[in-house]
């Protein structure tokens, strides 16, 4: 009996062009792993239908001939089929209300769900991810947004020469464009009224690494958080230098008891014992790139109250743009009211009435919060993702899901990522019942 998998087309976003597996991966699965691969036709996927066909896949309009289906983003409820196994980013592990109907539908149809986000090693580190590419595209877009927003203030900068990430033919072309801007800043500097120009980055994982990779193409000097006040108090700063500061958890919060220091283990176990301590740094930042993990048990980074109290004449004194790569609507940053699309990537937040307006011309705080940033670099991000996923495809496809959860023969990282098995929440995810 042959073993097969399906690769679905992506339909949540108009410009979602990624695929979990490339034609190269498909060819290897067919020739070396002896799998049958069905690929749902797509006119927008970064690789053409013909490329998958030439790799040996069977092109199809539906995936009814296979029981194991791989995608990238959430799948509309109407497409779930009884008792099938689905592998995709489900965005349910925090109990996200907007995806609970999807989770309920999966369970009602007796399906099995494996979530890429929860494929982790024994140290709980993610194994398969798009994070670096979210950081790469997010930083490119943030620099592009800076150019547009500063122009609204009648400040011309070299950032105007940077475009939105998806408009470049490749990551290398985008990198070259940013590097050219970096050379211009090094030679001619930025306008003096922007000095000192400071980019703050939250997080130090895969997203942050991608952010810093792009930022490193500019003339950058890293400073410690405790140097921010000193930097701003200088009478002059070099105009041809951008300062980078990376915020870790201990920089973001403080204990409710002023006599107790920050303790990382205590913070994760008892986050209610901690308060926001980040807003003191906002007046020192020109740009903030938010790339950290957050959920609602932790204090926020930026509150509406802070923005209401500190905005003058429709803007903050220094902070021009937030690139919110984390993109948690009304999450760590109150100004991020929604994830934006590649087609309409920017909006301005008004704290007075807690509303947003598309574009970059309104009064308020400029936000870039594209929800599918890796899809702005679809080829490179999909190739990197598929290179890791490839090793797990056959075990996922060959597993006997009719067996009990304890008896299923799967690699441990995959078993950890099984949120639903034949319509039932698995032991590690029983907590989601309260959200259903």
Report on the structure:
It is a single chain. The protein is an alpha/beta fold. Helix content is 28%, strand content 17%. The chain has two domains: 3-129 and 378-434, NAD(P)-binding Rossmann-like Domain (Rossmann fold, 3-Layer(aba) Sandwich), CATH 3.40.50; 131-376. It has helices at 23-31, 49-54, 100-108, 131-152, 171-188, 206-215, 228-233, 249-252, 264-269, 304-310, 378-398, 412-416; strands spanning 3-7, 35-40, 58-60, 68-70, 85-88, 112-115, 197-202, 220-222, 242-247, 253-255, 274-276, 287-290, 321-324, 346-350, 355-358, 365-368, 418-421, 424-425. An eight-stranded mixed β-sheet has the order 3-2-1-4-5-6-17-18. Strands 8-9-7-12-13-16-14-15 form an eight-stranded mixed β-sheet. A two-stranded antiparallel sheet has the order 10-11. It is globular, with a radius of gyration of 23 Å. It starts with a strand and ends in an 11-residue tail after the last strand. The model has no long low-confidence stretch (mean pLDDT 96).
Distance between the termini: 38 Å
| Envelope shape | globular
Number of helices: 12
* Number of structural domains: 2
Strand-and-helix sequence, N→C? EHEHEEEHEHHEHEHEHEHEEHEEEEHHEE
Strand composition percent: 15-25%
Helical proportion?
A: 25-40%
Q: How many DSSP-defined strands? A: 18
Strand order of the largest sheet: 3-2-1-4-5-6-17-18
Low-confidence stretches: none
* SS-derived structural category: alpha/beta
Observed structural traits:
single chain, 436 residues, alpha/beta, Rossmann fold, 8-stranded mixed β-sheet, 28% helix, globular
Compact description:
This protein is of the alpha/beta class and 436 residues long. The protein has helices at residues 23-31, 49-54, 100-108, 131-152, 171-188, 206-215, 228-233, 249-252, 264-269, 304-310, 378-398, 412-416; strands at 3-7, 35-40, 58-60, 68-70, 85-88, 112-115, 197-202, 220-222, 242-247, 253-255, 274-276, 287-290, 321-324, 346-350, 355-358, 365-368, 418-421, 424-425.
